[in-house]
Specification:
The protein is mainly beta. It has two domains: 103 residues, no CATH class; 315 residues, Porin. The chain has seven helices and 16 strands. The longest helix has 13 residues. About 5% of the residues have low confidence.
Length: 424
Amino acid sequence: MNKQLVMALAMALGVSATAFAANPFSDLPAGHWAYGAVAKLAAAGIVDGYPDGSFKGDRTMTRYEMAQIVAKALAKGAIGADDRLVSEFADELDNLGVRVAKLEKNADMVQITGEAQISYANNSGAVFKGDDSGNSESDLRTRIWLTGEVNDNWHYVSMLENHQYFGGKNESGDDDTDFQRAFLEGRLGGLQVKAGRYDEFLADGNIYDSQVDGVRATYNFGKAYVTGAYGKMASASDYSWTKLNGDENLEEGAGKFAFGELGGDWGNLHLAGSYLKAKDVHSMGMDGTDDEIWTVGADYTAGKVNFGGMYLKGNNDDIDKANADDDGFVAHITYGGAESDTPGSWGLLATYYDQAAPTVIAHTMDGAWDAFPTYGFKGWKVGGNVTLAKNLVAEVDYYDLKGKGGDENGKHARTLWSQMVVTF
């Protein structure tokens, strides 16, 4: 490639200067197509001519010569270490004594992001009376995400989480660290695919919001979409394939699951219906039996306001034996919302819940939904969030739930929950 073309490409790739030089080289007339690019680079001291004042732009340039120009651009601050030219000529720059680490060479292929969340919950109400574990808890959760580009269509995502607990018996700050996410995500023909260990968010989190080991695929057609997922629901206790076997020391979870959803967006209106079949469910009084859940829902956005509702119906043998309710609904309204990159942005939210036990496996809410086994719960939540500074978001929510039957019928579980989230 001749020098004039290389110089023009260098300008297009980001090497810049602020001034023109008057006739910098004797063999580069002002009317030449490459004059502007070469003149800017010469004025910045990034390119030099020959002793006779010529540029010899028609001569083929070697990679080593181009690396020398990139090194000068780096030294003068015309480009940064993350520029594409630096990545392209990293080996030659190393030979010139310009230190470009392998990680820097591939910096655009791997992204590292993080999130730190400190939260506090205070519980009150008849359900918590006699609870010797304490009515308040606080914790610090730190997550480090690594996203690597496999190719133009696929990337790999992993996440390492450290959790420090400061409530109840763990006042000293007991903690654990888990490698919780590891999945591939990308396109396969017309399908958007995710496979591995990822977080599954079913029915807006009203059914399930936790890890799964599985595969999910979505196909869009027009304004509609169809989604399918299959795998194993992970134990919330050990983030591994669920083998609860009636062990009450392990938290909510289930075994194999299959999920399907059909929905779409028509203007500001979103509609969706779904079906879930989960085996070996240990949650809300379901002791290892299978659970089926059907949902249908809609929400509408008008400016900063979003409101909607969802109907849920479950089918579980344990719940049927107790002659308990098997359906329910959730309704919500939100205004605005805190955006982490917009200081001063804020939002308000309110939700009403009336959910029977077989419509829940691992709820997304921070209220005490799991305090009402077999019969389920109803109640409400109100809250607000605000971005205090860029990447610094605070939220406060208040829940007032009560049981729908059994020993906990009518008893309240109130939770004041707050958090601060820092992203980086």
